[in-house]
Amino acid sequence: MTFLAQEPTLADFGRDPWWLILIKVVFAFAFGLVATLLGVWFERRVVGRMAVRPGPNQLGPFGLLQTLADGVKMAFKEDILPRSADKVVYFFAPVISVVCAVTALSVMPFGPMVSIFGHQTPLQVTDVSVAVLLVLACSSMAVYGVVLAGWASGSTYPLLGGLRSSAQLISYEIALGLSVVAVFMLSGTMSTSGIVAAQGERPQVEFFGLDVSAPGWYAILLFPSFVIFFIAIVGETNRAPFDLPEAESELVAGFMTEYSSLKFALIMLSEYVAMVTMSAFTVTLFLGGWRAPWPLSIWDGANSGWWPMLWFFGKVLALVFVFVWLRGTLPRLRYDQFMRLGWKVLLPLNLLWILVLAGWLKTQGWERADRLIAYGAVAGVVLIVTLIWPSRKPAAKPTLAEEVSNRPYGSFPLPPLDLQVPPSPRTQRIVAEREPANLTTGTDSREV
Question: PROSITE patterns from the xrefs (predicted)?
Fold first, then answer.
């Protein structure tokens, strides 16, 4: 095969023979399926490592066959159908989530133009001028599977989990969309292959009086958008600490409570495929797509041939690790805290950043990317400080005397904090009547 370093464009799509298109479609589907099998194993191993335990290590080398064994076990479990469930919707709800998650992989660029059996073709199933909007539409449609699964189960807990998921989508879809707007403004296109090509440009940055070539990744140029986008996709995929639609503490298993056997496996499949898809989407928008990171980019052949597919998978794996890392370290948020973060923190900051970015591009242009990087770094620091800064100072704890004086008249008395409850009047009377006997026998009155 001949390695080419050619950038794919929209004109390069739609010319492949049917068998080559079929190979690409099967590869995208297999990538989502294999990523799910390895993702479950990877998560259990990483979380086990964080908890100082081995994780799955019995079936196969390093426990790699444990996920496959779990899938076979789910297939042979009893498929229970609730009596009050809507049978048609109950069956198709998990399918909707899986189809939407896998469909979004069709516009992800895995690499540049390569030669496959003598045909020059991009390592991407297809691309359109509004490919990013297609991914956002698939992400929005996936929540229908969750909502319908909760409604069709005919139970209270799944219904509450489905309602939570719809509110969660609305709250974080806006912040996610505004983050993508910043990418549109700099790249000038909504095509995924075009966005990756735009990040290949290396603007000149003045650094201590020297003109150096800065990386064109939007994670650096648009750092606030990158941080907000990643927080939003964690909420979109219902991953910890934002896994409120399936909170075990109050909703048992959430919207999937009444599911079993293969339907439950489909729900798990959709969750992990969505996590991998959103990681690939983040890599495409902000981390240069299939382009090699520095210092690998110094090598002339790093961005040609089949090597870019390796860099793409490596970046996706790094983001999946961050998803697992969050699950293993952060506790679940309360629902009011989760809503407050989306509406009162991420949305205003994103609007302010878009306004500043639009004004900068209008007055300074893309040529002064050095100041854009500096302002983006400052804005990113302000964003992180805002996220971790406490919302209010804890109130000073009142003393016992102040607490007693603030109680309303006639309220029930507060027991002593040392748990030395004074004896009741009846006990005091009995002690007083036995006092002479205690003096003669030498018994302590406190023993009564």
Answer: COMPLEX1_ND1_1 (PS00667), COMPLEX1_ND1_2 (PS00668)
